[in-house]
Amino acid sequence: MGVGPPALEAVGVSKRYGTREALCGVSLTARTGELHGLLGPNGAGKTTLLRVLLGLVRRDAGSVEIFGRSVDSPAGPAPDGVAGFVETPAFYPYLSGRQNLALLARLDSDEHSTCGRKVDRALDHIGLGAQADVAVSGYSAGMRQRLGLAATLLRSPRLVFLDEPTSSLDPGGARDVRVLARHLADEGAAVVLSSHDMAEVEELCSTLTVINRGQVIFSGTVHDMRTLAPSSNHVLHTSDDGAAIDLAAHRAGLKVAPGAEGGLEVSAELDALDSYVIALGIAGVAVRVLERRARSLESLFLQLTAHPGPGDCRTAPAHEATGRQPIPTVAW
Amino acid sequence: MTIRSLRAVAGVEWSKIAAQAKVRLVLVVCLAGPFVFAVAMRLQSSVPADTLFGRSVMESGFAIPLVVLGFAGLWAFPAVTSVVGGDLFSAEDRYGTWATMLTRSRSREEVFAGKVLVAVAFSLLAVTALAVSSVAAGALLIGPLPIINLSGNLLSPGEALTRVTLAWASVLPPALGFTGLAVLVSVATRSSAAGIGLPVVAALTMQLLAMIDGPEMIRRLLITSAFGAWHGLLTEPRFYGPIAYGTLVSTAHFLVCLSVAYRLLMRRDIGG
Fold this sequence. Notes:
The complex is a heterodimer. By secondary structure, chain A is of the alpha/beta class. Chain A has helices at 46-53, 97-108, 112-125, 141-153, 171-186, 198-204, 222-228, 241-248, 270-282, 297-306, and strands at residues 6-17, 20-31, 35-39, 61-66, 69-70, 82-85, 159-163, 190-195, 207-212, 215-221, 233-238, 254-258, 264-268, 287-292. In chain A, the strands form three sheets. Chain A has a six-stranded mixed sheet, with helices on both faces. In chain A, strands 2-1-4-5 form a four-stranded antiparallel sheet, covered by helices on one side. In chain A, strands 12-13-11-14 form a four-stranded antiparallel sheet, with helices on one face. The radius of gyration of chain A is 24 Å and the shape is elongated. Chain B is 72% helix and 1% strand. Chain B has twelve helices and two strands, in the order ααααααββαααααα. Chain B has a two-stranded antiparallel sheet with strand order 1-2. Chain B starts with a helix and ends in a 5-residue tail after the last helix. The interface between A and B is medium-sized, with 39 and 31 residues.
């Protein structure tokens, strides 16, 4: 199933705790059939945003529409088809996983007769069937995370919020969750995935929103983000690599080392790189290839969030940071 | 809010408290306590003479529920009714389950109402269990014999049973008043220790205040005064004024506490 109309449209959402701005005019759109990454360093406001979207926290400003309907009161029931969890999902430790899910199913439905089947299906789906009758107090963090996913599946979700769903899972479990998230999106659900794992977002998500200090610093496709990010790592091939290394040794702001796959790896800001290339020419060392290395989303993300944000809603619009000029690949 | 929603939330809450050992223990104590007391009275030679109807515990089984009632009014009712009311909301904070609970198909209003309904139901159940057990213990271990009331008149067993039943019924409103207080403390402090402990401390403080020779109005505004209003049912002629006033005061406490608790929960940011 392809990407469809917006399931979620949050515009200008702000939240203040005392004097601290947790969210400053954050906007986020997630479409049906789409996995949307929500990235940001610790304390950026990701979890607060998810809490606002799930109706747990009252927003101070902005609007939220879910499936085209305005969500005004955070005290109302979760809209049909909306599910998810924030931080590590929590359950009643003195009850078993199955009992916990049965209670949640009763909160979701007036039809008691179908609750048991739904619970069994959800438990099997996330691979907790064998431990379903163990008290949750005996569950590992990973098992609780799986149970949280089962609780999400109980609502037959069309809009899913997952807050770092693989953070407590082993690699196998994390892979299962990624498959599940992809499956939900393929089935037509909009999935908003908050994660610290850039590789995970890069692998799963087609669109993403990056927030830092409560402000959106990037919103768009993964492809857009790659093209916007500056590069500082290059692969260099010269006519005399040894001389090129010697020449770099006396230059500030420049790091040159032999590359693992031949040539040299150059790490430098643009100005330093320019003057180094000129110096190579003057020294009679020919530059044959100077190529920007392919960058992972993680390094781009780190660059975007490295600069401390203003932390004040009255300053420049958040999306201004996305106006960076990409550095083109240079090759001879 | 619909009846179905309320029933669903209340059913979930009841399932949760029914699975808790401390709740079962309280009910067991309510059921077994009077029997233990009655057996102790039979085994010992002296009687609790300084307690209302204490002198009669070996003469009539109906004295047992009245002695238990007098004792429970001091602190046991506030404690018993707070076990659930003072924990039902703060337990969600302790376990971190508010987000789990409030991202389902029930509104906060329905969750609040369902929880309060269960807290009230448990308080009524605990007081009723204590009452039935006390009457049964007195009847079975001492005997359903006539009893002398506070005016010195002898009451037949039938009349005594009626008055004992009415006396126990008269403590339901203040018990619910303390349930409301426990709910409020539980919501406001998000602490089960405070939710269960503070109502007991409040009850003891109110009893101290009642002993101070202050304005009568202050004494009448205390919920604990309603726990002693049943004395008027064991006199000739009977007087109902304290019961009516105590019921009014308890109802006001109950409603005010629940209103404040409701507003606090509705305005609260969960985990923010």
